[in-house]
Amino acid sequence: MAYKGTDFYLSDRLLSDEERDIRDAVRDLVDEKVLPIIEDHFKAGTFPNEIISEVAEMGLLGASLEGYGCAGLGAVAYGLTMQELERGDSGLRSFVSVQGSLCMYPIHRFGSEEQKQRWLPGMAKGELIGCFGLTEADHGSDPAGMVTHAKRKGDDWVISGEKMWITNGCIADVAIVWARDDEGVIRGFLVEKGMKGYTTNLIENKWSLKASVTSELLFDEVVVPESNRLPEAKGLGGPLSCLNQARYGIAWGGVGAAMAVYEVALKYAQERKQFDRPIGSFQLVQQKLVQVLSDITKGQLLCIQLGRLKEAGVAEAYHVSLAKRDNIKMALDAARNMRDVLGAAGICHDYPMGRHAMNLESVYTYEGTHDIHTLIIGHAATGLKAFT
Ligand code: TGC
Ligand code: FAD
Fold first, then answer.
1. Which is nearest to 134 in space by CA: 82, 173, 187?
2. pLDDT digit string (tens) for 90-106?
3. Strand intervals (E) in 40-184
4. Residues annotated as part of the active site
5. Spacing, Cα 142 to ligand 2 middle (Å)
6. Measured between alpha carbons, how far is 338 from 262 in angstroms, rounded to an integer?
7. Which residues pair with 150 in a beta bridge?
């Protein structure tokens, strides 16, 4: 009996009706509003701004947070939204990850009540955009080495330094900036667009995540009031706890990207003929399709269980690392192998393989590289750190 689709293990049965409804609503949005325009944006190197209000109206910005106009979704429902967004494009999922997990989450978790009231409702509506500045040109995998500095001056702080590779940077109304104070403590600040000495540069020469805004942030003695410091964030654990949230969504996103390329390759293999037969009838082509279907199935189950651990409050950072590491490697391999099934056609913009493969190279690197996650899991398994 022929099997169609990507739910090979009937994992839909592990979801509630509400979770399936949310997933299906985002799936429809992506099919109707994202897929028709995304390839052109990717080619032009532009982010689809026109989709921001649509994802906001659906409650997808800061969707896992409670209150302040946020949807308060459970972890699995939230993950399913990220899966569907990345089925569209990693750049769209990145935009939503950064807005929700890296900007709204730290304000929600570490911010004052005044900061929450000021920023969160507008960010949930997509009227205010955020970015997250942790990485520096010389400090990527090792953010503890950051040199961006915040000096206390009366009631203010003076921030100097540079952040690199920052998603949403040039379009952000507020940047969550992590900087070291005179005592060496890492603190988080809300740096607002238009503050004197704060500028951004667009990073344009990319072949990956082209439908996403990537920027450099420059701080030339930017005076930031104490009321713009996140009062509850102290030390590297602050930004790293935000990464746990974003990495969780990325793990689901990897499943979505793999689903996208698998579904296209399956249809192509059933229709494309060589040697008077559909190429899907050749054993070697079936082997490639089966490998990806098998990997997607395992990736889905991994994410659902991780989501349930999160909902039970027992998910550790190393659980998240394993899912981010495995699912993004899986999706990258899937994009390459499904491109192969399309032969020459696979290198064209008519099909999404190249776009997903290129995007996933960034996803493999950001939010902790594949190898950094290996070391995080290795630390958890052995009790021994291997970073240095
Ligand atoms: P280490 O000494 O292990 O830890 C320092 C302090 O942080 C605590 N901690 C965590 N807290 C919460 N969540 C985590 N995942 C945590 N990991 C560690 C730790 O307990 C400690 O606390 P305390 O109180 O004892 O001080 O730190 P380390 O310097 O040895 O570094 C550890 C390492 C390498 C794992 C970490 O720095 C790391 O994850 N590096 C990768 C950097 C990274 O992922 N950067 C991402 C930048 S943002 C981004 O890429 C956005 S892409 C956006 C998009 O478009 O989607
Ligand atoms: P490096 O740290 O220089 O790593 C280079 C290589 O060395 C990697 O293979 C790495 O695994 C390896 N390596 C490093 N240390 C070790 C070690 N101890 N043991 C073994 N191998 C090691 N950052 C933000 O703060 N905010 C953002 O919004 C953001 N968005 C991004 C968007 C894009 C498109 C990209 C590409 C990056 C983004 N980043 C962002 C930055 C991202 O988090 C970093 O690129 C990432 O953390 C890796 O840092 P790096 O590029 O400096 O590589």
1. 187
2. 999 999 999 999 999 99
3. 130-133, 149-153, 156-167, 174-180
4. 367
5. 8
6. 6
7. 159
